[in-house]
Amino acid sequence: MADTWAPGETIVGQSVWDGKVRVACPMFVIHDRPDVLAAYIPRGTINKRARTPGGEPVRLPLGEWVLVEEAWTRAAVMLAFPGRRYRLLGFWDDPHQRIITWYANLETPIERSRHGFAFTDLFLDVVISGDLREWRWKDEDELTEAVQAGLLTNNQAQDVYEAGKQVIELVQRKGPPFSDGWEQWKPNPSWHIPVL
Question: Fewer CB within 10 Å: C terminus or N terminus of the chain?
Fold first, then answer.
């Protein structure tokens, strides 16, 4: 396992459920500090996502699935905070001049490995406007279905909402990491498309 990764190093983020990969996405390390791992996912990055054998997206980790290749559609910064139950993704507009959307993925804290990190997605997300003026819950129906299917307990679902509320408080304060200058950050020109 790497103690820290160097800027420009390619790592892989994996969403797993019960040891089985649901998503695998390569990315370039921007910086790896004790308080935050920051990485860049260029538009066009090929990642792998869970699909049913019939080709439909997998909403809940029930039954069988296969991984299929998909292209990442918008350049993003990924911010992971050790010990926290969320990661942030900031999506840039096409000219890479401003972040148009922040996305908080509510999940288990990341677990580092030699090649990257893994986490378990906990279904609920928070979508935040780039100017931080608006936010909304996303996939509340999936969280409800996960509880009904026995994937999470009611108490665990409540904990997921609490993690989301932590993100919302950060948004309302408009402080770090939202005030850390990600709007002005530009990727190293030598970083093209990372590969799995």
Answer: N
